[in-house]
Design brief:
With 410 residues, the chain is α/β, with parallel strands linked by helices. It has 13 helices and 9 strands. The longest helix is centred in the first third of the chain and has 30 residues, at 2-31. It binds alpha-D-galactopyranose. Alpha-D-galactopyranose (GLA) is lined by residues 176, 248, 279, 316, 381.
């Protein structure tokens, strides 16, 4: 009798311990997306938060708008992810090639479609972009034969576009990438030629249909674009719409200073500029080589621009994981180590943006919008002919990458 009781007791205890063990495993798996366990890599489409995920737009509501570049087509495919964003940028729909395909004949239908989608989804729109050397219809470079003609063509395009969208957008990238791709320190010296900081001349190859605005107009093309935008906003009483200069590599100290000169140049002529857009197409390998140096340069730029009373928008953030565009494809899904490192880098960038979302001094501007160039890794402009990239917050299968959890945790 006693023996049977002991036997049953042992069996029962064994059963209870096993049950407890199984329960622990189940609990651990449920928490895995938030843990640092390498077995739960989401690179090839793993994780989904349990229950309703906290939206990025909610988590960052007290800091800045959270945006993504989209197209009229892909807004339909990102149903599950777009609620995270409260700002969108048109990837193509508002660019010159689309909106003024023939001189004086405007077609805003694609941009309007996106604005309608945004308004129906309680989402704001960043206007992008009024003047660029790329993405132009072929008539522009043919018609801009002299400075006077070029300036009046810019004036008409900018005015009509700004007036059409009015305050359906909260800002415009008035000019995109007018600075030289790389600005060398020699270009900033006092005796440097006037064109040294500009995207112009032999050092920059302009492809068919692209245009060297500086060669035709000198710096007046930039002044014209900003002045026309400002006047158009005044005309329609939409002065709240902010006017931005947008470029890449503005974390680089030389390019930062070149950008400051553009701002000063406009202000000397009494022309309004409200902010600087740092595109932020970054490389993970650059960050990993010198994390502190990278973050210092980034923060120095944010501080410098905001100290001028300008707002800063991060306009095209994405983080490539390969070291160069020609590196052959080395994996079919994002390796765990790279996903973790990428999440860390995103987190550091967001930390700086959060810090500067409140003014750091009197008269300082703030970081008021952070946009990624795309929604998820299945659609990114960073893919090359050599490999697929994984630069965004969400994965190829619209899964939640570690970056999402990092942005929630910081
Ligand atoms: C630049 C432009 C964007 C977009 C990207 C593509 O950064 O500003 O509009 O075309 O290139 O990577």
């Amino acid at each position: 009798m006693q023996q049977t009781f002991l036997k049953n007791f042992k069996r029962g205890a064994f059963f209870a311990i096993s049950l407890l063990f199984l329960l622990c495993i189940a609990l651990f798996s449920a928490c895995a997306p938030l843990s640092s366990d390498s077995s739960s890599s989401s690179g090839s489409g793993g994780t989904e938060p349990v229950g309703d995920p906290t939206l990025l737009r909610t988590a960052y509501a007290d800091y800045f708008r959270i945006g993504a570049a989209v197209t009229t087509d892909n807004v339909k495919t990102y149903d599950s992810l777009l609620p995270h964003f409260n700002s969108v940028t048109a990837e193509w729909e508002m660019k010159w090639r689309v909106s003024e395909p023939s001189q004086g004949e405007f077609d805003f239908s694609a941009g309007d479609e996106l604005v309608a989608w945004a308004q129906a989804h309680d989402t704001a729109v960043r206007g992008h972009c009024l003047l660029w050397y790329k993405s132009l219809p072929s008539w522009v470079s043919e018609a801009c034969t002299d400075k006077e003609t070029a300036l009046s063509i810019i004036d008409e395009h900018v005015r009509e576009t700004v007036k059409h969208y009015g305050d359906d957008v909260y800002c415009w990238d008035v000019a995109n990438e007018v600075l030289d791709g790389t600005v060398y320190s020699s270009a900033l010296e006092e005796d440097a030629p006037a064109d040294a900081i500009w995207r112009t001349g032999d050092d920059e190859e302009f492809e068919q249909g692209e245009i060297d605005w500086y060669e035709i107009c000198g710096e007046d093309f930039l002044k014209q674009a900003f002045r026309s935008a400002e006047l158009a906003l005044e005309e329609i009483g939409a002065e709240d719409v902010q006017l931005f200069y947008n470029d890449y590599s503005l974390n680089d100290p030389n390019k930062r200073e070149a950008c400051v000169r553009l701002v000063e140049m406009l202000r000397e002529d009494g022309i309004r500029i409200d902010g600087v857009g740092m595109q932020a197409h970054y490389g993970l390998q650059t960050y990993l080589k010198d994390k502190e140096g990278f973050m210092k340069n980034f923060e120095d730029s944010v501080r410098r621009f905001t100290s001028l009373g300008l707002d800063v928008h991060i306009t095209e953030l994405d983080i490539r994981v390969y070291g160069s565009s020609s590196e052959p494809q080395a994996f079919d899904s994002l390796p765990y180590e790279l996903e973790v490192a990428q999440a860390e880098m995103y987190g550091k960038i967001f930390e700086v943006c959060r810090k500067y979302s409140t003014p750091q001094g009197e008269g300082y501007g703030v970081v008021s919008s952070v946009t990624t160039w795309g929604v998820a890794d299945d659609h990114t402009s960073q893919d090359t002919s050599a490999h697929k990239e994984y630069p965004l917050i969400f994965g190829v299968d619209h899964d939640y990458k570690r970056t999402y959890y990092e942005l929630m945790a910081i």
